[in-house]
From TrEMBL:
Residues covered by region (Disordered): 101-124
Keywords, alphabetical: Signal
Residues of the signal peptide: 1-15
The organism's taxonomic lineage, starting at the top: Bacteria, Pseudomonadati, Pseudomonadota, Betaproteobacteria, Burkholderiales
Protein name per UniProt: Lipoprotein
Length: 181
């Protein structure tokens, strides 16, 4: 009997310590991108200088335990709709910035900047695992990002986040098969 009480007590304590993932649908961008976040999203807009322009990137994010989930969007200047080269440069720059911000070496030029990728880096509290995808359409720069300590990442339902993700045109995201490393 005492053993059953001890096991039950441990189960209650473990449940109290595990983060709650209360998934909520979130639209981001103007062209139909959507996903889920594990709590009420916080929104923050910041100016991001790129080449000779400043883009206003709005990130909607939520934490569950030690895992940060974020969905971001920025409108592109009207003239960029007809400039595939500048959109490719922006996608590459955005991917490289995620790597640099986590203290990791960006992938080489052969990596497709719009494929889902993951890598190990360093955050303010130690090692982090970053999993992300960047899409640059004719009108928008879009990002989906998960950042966590490796153990937190391994125990969180990160797959639910990726399965929920819909890019403009209804396309979902695939497993990071062509992960730039």
């Amino acid at each position: 009997m005492l053993r059953m009480l001890a096991i039950g007590g441990c189960a209650v304590l473990m449940a109290a310590c595990s983060p709650t993932f209360d998934w909520r649908p979130v639209a981001f961008g103007q062209a139909g991108a959507a996903g889920v976040l594990p709590d009420t999203p916080q929104a923050q807009t910041r100016p991001v200088p790129f080449e000779d322009r400043t883009l206003n990137l709005t990130m909607r994010s939520a934490r569950a335990g030690g895992v940060l989930f974020a969905l971001g969007a920025a409108e592109l200047p009207p003239g960029w709709a007809d400039d595939a080269a500048v959109r490719r440069r922006l996608a590459r720059w955005a991917v490289d910035a995620l790597y640099r911000n986590a203290g990791a070496e960006p992938p080489g030029p052969e990596a497709d900047p719009q494929q889902r990728f993951s890598f190990e880096g360093r955050g303010p509290r130690g090692p982090v695992r970053v999993e992300a995808q960047v899409r640059v359409t004719a009108t928008e720069w879009l990002e989906a990002v998960v950042i966590a300590a490796p153990d937190d990442h391994a125990h969180a339902p990160v797959g639910d986040f990726w399965l929920s993700l819909r890019w403009p045109g209804g396309e979902g995201t695939a497993a990071p098969g062509s992960s730039p490393q």
